[in-house]
Amino acid sequence: MIEIRNLYKRYHNHHDSPWVLKDINLTIPTGVSVGLLGRNGAGKSTLLRLIGGMDSPDRGDIVRNSRVSWPIGLAGGFQGSMTGRQNVKFVARIHGAEEEIERVVREVEAFAEIGNAFDDPVKTYSSGMRSRLAFGLSLAFDFDVYLSDEATAVGDRAFKAKAKEAFKARVGKASLIMVSHGEGVLREFCEAGIVLEKGQARWFDDIEEAIGAYHQATDGKKIEPPKVPTSLSEAKQQLMQANLEFEQARLDYQIASDDPARNDPDDALRWRVEESRERMHEARRYVQQFQSQAKAKPRKRTTKTTKKTGRP
Amino acid sequence: MAMEISRSDSSQPNFAGPSGGRARSSWRVARSVWFALFMRETISRTMADRMGWFWMIFEPLAIIGVMVSVRGLFMSGRHIAGADYVAWMVVGLMGFMLFRENMMRSIGAIEANRGLFAYRQVKPIDPVLVRCFLEGMLKSLIFILFITIGSLLKFELMPDYPFGAMMDWLSLWALGWGMGLTLSVLGDLVPEIGKVARILNLPLLLLSGVIFPVLYVPHQYREYLLMNPIVHGLESMRMNFFSGYHTIDGIDMTYLWFWALALISLGLVLHMRFRDQLKAH
């Protein structure tokens, strides 16, 4: 269980320093995975860093009665001049795993799958390799709560799938607190949600409600939870719909930004463009998925779906 | 140490060790962090550079060589009463470099390890402490190496009062440690301070009596010279190395320790006060 009591946080800039988080009171129960929602700058990452203990609050406190990880997939915690192996050993040591250092190194090496590069300096790594190493490192330790800041969005597709699997294997034993703009990812992993807005946090027992509230807060529009398409034609239809919505949002934004008397401090329209773009990409992925399935097994014409998709 | 109070860590991954499941004590967390940082710094100091080990020994040798030849060229005729001037200069340079390296390495310590503050167990003071420790160990090792090789070559470098020399060496180390702790915070908050410290290196070398014997300083300026605590450390160490050596009056190790303890306390307080700023930067 993680308890947040009367939490205040602000960053001291040169000019004014408004509260990023203002009087947050939350209790995150054990074993519940939570998604953090809010637009850029709403304080999602700040709250995550505070929960992880990387930063300390200006007022109030956070009680962690469980073992909390550092943000998984954090690629910044490496020393560039040292090899992947040396970096892994370092992290194992600060976590007091001196006796188990061999096991940790073996596990990370197996998970990261970067071959001989494991013994090269980290500064020679590509960003994908770095995040593979970082991800493997996070999973080599048994935490109760894992923190994730857009972490599942790294690496190529095969690695993403692997990371997802590794996560799923831990559900039940460990929970997750995650910041992501991908609503699909949030739906997949999280049960509950926290919406951050203007320094305030609202707790929702259901992630669907949280996503709904988030959209209502940003543009006053209610967004239906997307249906997972069951066939290629359905997916294509959704893609067309998403394309239309995106074009509409972009047009609205362009018209609004041409207007000199515009009063839109939150930039809600711009965020609507970004979100509809995200939905469009999601829809396109579904279409591609169905198309590749169609290519993979063109012979099976027995099931209903294959007939509907009308593949060659 | 007061710093450790904040390190209480109830959120460790547990391992099937003797302490499995329970949170580690603050002291144990601090020890594992220091050990991990020590291994990391040692590797990056000695192995990361292709010629790491070579330069570590050759650099002081080269500086001593240059200084000795400069003296031989421009100041021939002057000699140090009661000591061979090469040995006299080796002792002074090694003592000064111990102080200077502790100070200068600490200034970059926080910046170089910024990425590690993502792991909440690591506090900004840790890399500074570990670097100072490592620096002192390396310099001691090199000095002992010089003394041993010198003795084998029948070159008088063995201290006449080894215990006193060792205490002076430790005192200079403590002074460098205090300076490092203080400047690591100030240099990180105000980068210009780090630059000024770098510029002040050379004047400090001259004012500490490393190259010119302080005995040559006119009487009326000596009291100002004695305000520099490094002078006390170096002269005291030379007196312990060479029993026939005489220096100016007023050499007082208590004065050096006053500086060292004041700087260490100030450094620790600054690290406590600005911990969050140092991390967040």
Rg of chain B: 21 Å
Strand content of chain B: under 5%
Write down the domain tally of chain A. Answer: 2
Largest sheet of chain B: none
Instruction: Please identify the structural class of chain A as seen in this structure.
Output: alpha/beta
The name CATH uses for the topology of the largest domain in chain A is: Rossmann fold
Distance between the termini of chain B: 25 Å
Sum up the overall morphology of chain A in one term: globular
Protein chain pair with the most extensive contact, residues per chain: A-B, 37 and 34 residues
N-to-C series of helices and strands of chain A: EEEHEEHHHEHEHEEHHHH
Order of helices and strands of chain B: HHHHHHHHHHH
- The N- to C-terminal Cα distance of chain A equals 54 Å
Q: Give the CATH architecture of the largest domain in chain A.
A: 3-Layer(aba) Sandwich
Low-confidence stretches of chain B: 1-6, 8-21
| Overall SS class of chain B | mainly alpha
Strand content of chain A: 15-25%
Number of domains of chain B: 1
Describe the structure.
The complex is a heterodimer of chains A (312) and B (281). Chain A has 312 residues and is α/β, with parallel strands linked by helices. Helices cover 45% and strands 18% of the residues of chain A. Chain A is built from ten helices and nine strands. Chain A has a six-stranded mixed sheet with strand order 5-6-7-3-8-9, sandwiched between helices. In chain A, helix 5 links the parallel strand 6 (145-149) and strand 7. In chain A, helix 3 packs across helix 4 and helix 8 packs antiparallel against helix 9 (268-296). The longest helix of chain A is centred in the last third of the chain and has 29 residues, at 268-296. The termini of chain A are far apart. Residues 302-312 of chain A have low confidence and may be disordered. Chain B is mainly alpha-helical and 281 residues long. Chain B contains eleven helices and no strands. In chain B, helix 5 packs parallel to helix 10. Chain B starts with 25 loop residues before the first helix and ends with a helix. In chain B, 38% of the residues are buried. Chains A and B meet through strand 5 and helix 2 of A and helix 1 and helix 11 of B.
